[in-house]
Amino acid sequence: MSQSLLLTIARASIEEVLQAETSIERSKLLEEYPILSQSMECEITLYLDNKLRGSARTENLGRSLLEEIIHNAKVAAFQDENFDPLVTSEYLHTTIKLTLFTADGELSHQSEAILSK
After folding, report:
1. Which domain holds residue 54?
2. Closest CA to 2 of 85, 92, 84, 98
3. Residues 44, 112, 69, CA angle at the centre, nearest 5°?
4. What are 45-72's pLDDT values in tens digits?
5. In this structure, is residue 73 part of a structural domain?
6. 101 CA to centre of own chain
7. What is the C-alpha to C-alpha distance for residues 21 and 33, in angstroms, rounded to an integer?
């Protein structure tokens, strides 16, 4: 499983809300990548112009890694109390950082913005 897959899931989660349609094929992803069914803590942090734009971290383990990524991406984008909900024009310029908290330590991955200014 690659870091780009995890970031793609995070982006698709936000796009599901912005486009008001479900696009993540959960069962297919879980079948292809069994590690996504394991419980793992993660954090999604959004940046706009290199400034914090939203963040969400696993609060209680219990969901699969797949569901944690989906949930935390949506919370960071639309429910972070410190920011208004993300709009499409911002999303296109947003960088996403995904951090996994494993027994071996933290693993961080970051995506580039879809559009650069």
Report:
1. 3-110
2. 98
3. 25
4. 999 999 999 999 988 788 999 999 999 9
5. yes
6. 14
7. 23
CB atoms within 10 A of CB 50: 7
Q: Is the CB of residue 112 less than 8 Å from the CB of residue 3?
A: no
- Residue indicated by tokens 């996994």: 100
Fill in the amino acid letter for 101: F
State the pLDDT at residue 93. 94
State pLDDT tens for residues 22-35. 889 999 999 999 99
pTM of the model: 0.89
Count the domains in the chain: 1
Buried b (16+ CB within 10 A) or exposed e, 30-48: beebeebeeebbbbbbbbb
H/E element, 110: strand 105-110
Token pair of 87 as six digits: 């709009």
